[in-house]
Amino acid sequence: MKTKYTKGEWKVDEKRNLATNEFSLFAGKKYIGRFTLAAPYPLGKEATDEMYANAKLIASAPELLEALSKTNEVLRWAIDEGLLKEEQFESINKRNIKAIEKATE
C-alpha cells in the first residue's frame, strides 16, 4: 500500500500538556507534530482520560489502516478461491475500500 503519511510506529507522548489539551505525536523517535483535542465538558479526570484515549486512537491509525488493508486482501483471496460468496461480503469490502481510500487520498 502506497502511503504519504509518516512511516513508523506512532505514539502519543506521555508528557501531554493538560492545561492546553496538547499532545505530541512521534513516529519512533521522529517528532510528527503537536495537536490539540477539544476538551469534553465538564473537565475532570474522565474528560482527561477521554482526550488521552482519543489521542491514542489517532496514534494507532497507521496500524489500523494496515490491518484493514490486510483483512481486505484476505477477503478478496477467499472470494477468489471460492471460499466465500462475493455477495456476502460485498458491502463490507466496499466500506473497507472506501475507508482505505479516505485515509490515503
Largest sheet: 3 strands, antiparallel
What value does the Rg take, in angstroms? 18 Å
**Would you tell me the structural class of the helices and strands?**
alpha+beta
The percentage of residues in β strands lies in: 15-25%
N-end to C-end Cα span: 12 Å
Number of helical segments with 4 or more residues: 3
Strand order in the sheet with the most strands = 1-2-3
Helical content class: 40-55%
Q: What is the residue-mean pLDDT, rounded to a whole number?
A: 82
Low-confidence spans: none
Order of helices and strands: EEEHHH
Oligomer: single chain
Write the topology of this structure.
Blueprint: E1 10-12, E2 22-27, E3 30-36, H1 45-59, H2 61-80, H3 86-104
Antiparallel strand pairs: 1-2, 2-3
Account of the protein in words:
With 105 residues, the chain is of the alpha+beta class. The chain has two domains: 10-59, no CATH class; 63-104. The protein has three helices and three strands. The protein has helices at 45-59, 61-80, 86-104; strands at 10-12, 22-27, 30-36. Strands 1-2-3 form a three-stranded antiparallel β-sheet, covered by helices on one side. The protein is elongated and about 55 Å long. The model has no long low-confidence stretch (mean pLDDT 82).
Summarize the structure.
With 105 residues, this protein is α+β, with helices and mostly antiparallel strands. It is 51% helix and 15% strand.
Keywords summarizing the entry:
105 residues; alpha+beta; three-stranded antiparallel β-sheet; 3 strands; 51% helix; 15% strand
